[in-house]
Write a structure and sequence with these properties.
The protein has 161 residues and is an all-alpha fold. The chain has 2 domains: 36 residues; 106 residues, Cytochrome c-like domain (Cytochrome Bc1 Complex, Chain D, domain 2), CATH 1.10.760.10. The protein is 48% helix and 0% strand. Helix 4 crosses helix 8 and helix 7 crosses helix 8. The longest helix is centred in the first third of the chain and has 19 residues. The termini are far apart.
């Protein structure tokens, strides 16, 4: 009889502990419970972003951009190196669209030294390289922003070669 009373008392204590041990009302106001309702501050369009700069540039549009780099020898060298890493495979070493990967495309990749490409603004080229267009891939997650700008300066030098 004593064992039965102890068992009943034990289960009653466990049930009481379970029912009274959780404050559900407090949990619904916890930040970890409603993280989707966290409001982030709104940035003005002219603000300099400290993170996610490419998504901010995409929202601003090409007309709001200007190439921050000047075509100095180190920038052109950076552009040539980035072009070799990211562009040569499709566009070829001279930008004519005859890269080893690009030869399998129909139509062939664009000739980057052509007047059609060269007359585009730096901002338009940035958007096309960075965010993709037609069959050109989105390279914004692959290339650094300054590498894209440097490649544009390098492309400008291809026309005379």
């Amino acid at each position: 009889m004593v064992r039965h009373s102890v068992a009943v008392l034990f289960w009653f204590a466990c049930l009481s502990w379970l029912c009274a041990g959780c404050d559900y009302a407090r949990m619904t106001t916890d930040e970890g419970y409603d993280t989707y309702e966290t409001h982030m501050p709104v940035m003005s369009m002219g603000a300099i972003a400290t993170g996610g700069t490419l998504s901010t540039l995409r929202m601003m549009g090409a007309e709001a951009l200007a190439n921050p780099l000047h075509p100095t020898p180190p920038v052109l060298a950076q552009g040539r190196q980035a072009y070799g890493y990211f562009c040569t495979h499709c566009h070829g070493p001279r930008g004519e669209g005859h890269g080893t990967v690009g030869q399998s495309f129909a139509p062939l990749p664009t000739n980057l030294a052509s007047e059609r490409v060269q007359r585009q603004s730096d901002a338009d080229l940035f958007f096309k390289i960075g965010f993709g267009f037609n069959r050109h891939p989105d390279l914004s997650h692959t290339m650094l922003e300054n590498d894209i700008w440097a490649v544009i300066h390098y492309l400008r030098r291809m026309q005379g070669q």
